[in-house]
Amino acid sequence: MLGTLGKDYKYKIVDNFLSEDELKLLDKYCFFKHRTNMNNFDTKQDNGDTYFHSDYLMESLLLKKKKLMEKECKLSLMPTYSFWRMYTRFADLKKHKDRPSCEVSVTIQISSDGTEWPIYMDGNAVVLYPGDLVIYRGIDLTHWRDEFQCGPDNWHVQGFFHYVDKNGPHTAHKFDGRDTIGQADPKDNASNNVVEPTSTSEKSYIQWG
Fold first, then answer.
1. Which residues contact 28 (CB under 8 A, 6 or more apart)?
2. Which of 72, 146, 183, 196 has the largest count of CB atoms under 10 Å?
3. Range of 65's domain?
4. What is the pLDDT of residue 39?
């Protein structure tokens, strides 16, 4: 039961949060950015995969979807930041809870090669399909992904939208330390939250077909 994101809140899956047109746009956009990426590799977490904090398109969706998010979680929200990552072979996500800027967290399935790769919420496997998302209280709920056991040409593209409760204790984290949405991350933080680093291996370049 979502309620008002109180301490009894677990998580909520929302199907078809992204429209078909939004998915088509994001699918190609993320592949093109991954294929041409020469700088944004995460060497602290996962597999050295492509990541982008405060990407302009994702920041636009962060704002565009705020009203729908408020309807789903029954809260007035303030946006903090967006993030997206192209996960490839051997990526993982260690068990963790998020920092205060991620009070209300959203993980969105944008695209994949069709391989299922669940995110675990409080020990429960959550499988998302393109356009679906899971809303959770990131600062309270332990979540993780097991290692992505797949071939060199498999992938998952995940988007992350983060908000704080407008009437809660974390309003100082509005915009995640920036002056406004759409600015670069002032911390140049390669991770969208605080987790322990894992090993880095050679980046996988997936070609757009």
1. 208
2. 72
3. 11-37+45-166
4. 58
